[in-house]
């Protein structure tokens, strides 16, 4: 089966590249299969072809060549053929019901901002890093680039490889904090006759452990459609996570969750991040287990970033406290939440934690 990346590569090589070379000789540009779509991450299959799949390509120029964006797009609108390899070049999508070509032309900065909500070309601030999502970053960095003579795209993709060290420690600490707040209640809810709630909590904690695995592996998590397929250490985590989801009683659920916790603590130690020798303890004198507070405290100790030092310790990046597709999937809406980070930091500074 022809993949979306294969099709985009050939479409650039045979059609789009020659058209740009003829109409705009010497123009520095990058061409790749970037942006949205399962094929960007290599996950497309036969079912993917029912919408938003086909002759798609992203063409990017440096900010200094912004004036070329409009003419290149207009030229492609005029000159692109009707079909390529038997597939329509102009077709409707979920964002455009009219059949149009899907060669996106933009500057590196504008394209990245459209996916991240912030412009990475001049560099990202601490708050900017907290506003990006894994899926947003992957739409800039996860796809294939077939040609690149720009000066900006390579550095942007390299800079987005992972969080800066202190932001990294902060978001990992927030991940452990989320787990620590609810792990003891898997047993407590079951013992008070709330069996369904115990199962729901276990499932939510499996989701938290999954996200924490991505953080500890320093890999950006795609949106939920592909999270399991991209999960780091999937073979090692499968048994504990499945037990947490499938066990018939709270003891089995908690055992599965704690096994996954211990595995991820080992991964954290192997990374060289500060990790206590014992990361799981008992919850007061009750028969439930919890994440030892030292796990979070050790990660946060010594952080000097002025933004992180005044934020609530368990807040984390936007995907750790916002669970709404209509926010997370819209970069411009995410960007507005910079004000929330500022407000929460200001509240801490004025003594209102």
Short recap of the structure:
Pfam families: DUF4037 (PF13228). This is DUF4037 domain-containing protein. This protein has 353 residues and is of the alpha+beta class.
List keywords for this structure.
353 residues, alpha+beta, 2 domains, two-stranded antiparallel sheet, 9 strands, 50% helix, elongated
User: What order do the strands of the largest sheet run in, or round the barrel if closed?
Assistant: 5-6-2-1-7
Q: Sheet with the most strands? A: 5 strands, mixed
End-to-end separation:
55 Å
Over the alpha carbons, how many angstroms does the gyration radius reach? 23 Å
Structural class: alpha+beta
**Percent of residues in helices:** 40-55%
Task: List the uncertain runs.
Answer: none
Number-wise, the strands total 9
Domain DUF4037: 129-227
InterPro entries: DUF4037
Protein name: DUF4037 domain-containing protein
Organism: Longispora fulva
Description:
The protein is of the alpha+beta class and 353 residues long. The protein has two domains: 4-159, no CATH class; 165-321. The protein has 16 helices and nine strands. The chain has helices at 4-23, 69-79, 108-116, 126-131, 134-141, 153-159, 165-182, 185-191, 195-217, 227-230, 234-246, 250-271, 293-300, 325-328, 331-336, 338-349, and strands at 30-33, 56-61, 83-84, 87-88, 90-93, 96-107, 144-148, 280-282, 289-291. The strands form three sheets. Strands 5-6-2-1-7 form a five-stranded mixed sheet. A two-stranded antiparallel ribbon has the order 3-4. A hairpin with a 2-residue loop joins strand 3 and strand 4. Helix 1 packs across helix 2 and helix 8 (185-191) runs antiparallel to helix 9. The chain is elongated. It starts with a helix and ends with a helix. The relative contact order is 0.11. The mean pLDDT is 95.
């Amino acid at each position: 089966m022809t993949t979306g990346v294969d099709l985009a590569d050939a479409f650039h090589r045979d059609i789009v590249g020659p058209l740009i070379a003829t109409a705009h000789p010497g123009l520095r540009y990058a061409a790749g299969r970037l942006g949205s779509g399962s094929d960007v991450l290599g996950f497309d299959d036969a079912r993917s072809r029912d919408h938003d799949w086909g002759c798609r390509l992203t063409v990017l120029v440096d900010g200094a060549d912004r004036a070329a964006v409009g003419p290149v797009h207009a030229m492609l609108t005029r000159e692109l053929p009707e079909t390529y390899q038997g597939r329509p070049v102009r077709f409707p999508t979920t964002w455009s019901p009219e059949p149009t070509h899907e060669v996106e032309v933009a500057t590196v900065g504008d394209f990245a901002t459209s996916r991240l909500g912030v412009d990475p070309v001049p560099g990202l601030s601490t708050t900017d890093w907290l506003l990006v999502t894994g899926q947003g970053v992957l739409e800039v960095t996860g796809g294939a680039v077939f040609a690149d003579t720009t000066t900006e795209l390579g550095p942007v993709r390299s800079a987005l490889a992972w969080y800066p060290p202190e932001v990294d420690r902060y978001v990992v600490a927030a991940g452990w904090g989320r787990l620590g707040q609810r792990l003891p209640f898997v047993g407590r809810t079951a013992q008070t006759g709330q069996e369904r709630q115990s199962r729901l909590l276990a499932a939510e904690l499996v989701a938290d452990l999954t996200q924490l695995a991505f953080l500890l592996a320093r890999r950006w998590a795609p949106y939920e459609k592909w999270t399991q397929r991209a999960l780091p250490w999937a073979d090692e985590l499968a048994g504990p996570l499945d037990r947490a989801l499938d066990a018939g009683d709270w003891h089995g659920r908690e055992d599965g969750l704690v096994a996954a916790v211990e595995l991820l603590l080992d991964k954290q130690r192997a990374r060289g991040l500060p990790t206590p020798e014992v990361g799981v303890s008992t919850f007061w004198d009750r028969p439930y287990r919890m994440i030892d507070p030292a796990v979070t405290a050790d990660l946060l100790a010594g952080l000097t970033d002025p933004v992180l030092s005044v934020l609530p310790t368990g807040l984390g990046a936007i995907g750790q406290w916002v669970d709404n597709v209509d926010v997370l999937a819209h970069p411009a809406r995410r960007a507005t939440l910079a004000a929330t980070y500022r407000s929460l930091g200001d509240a801490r500074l004025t003594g209102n934690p």
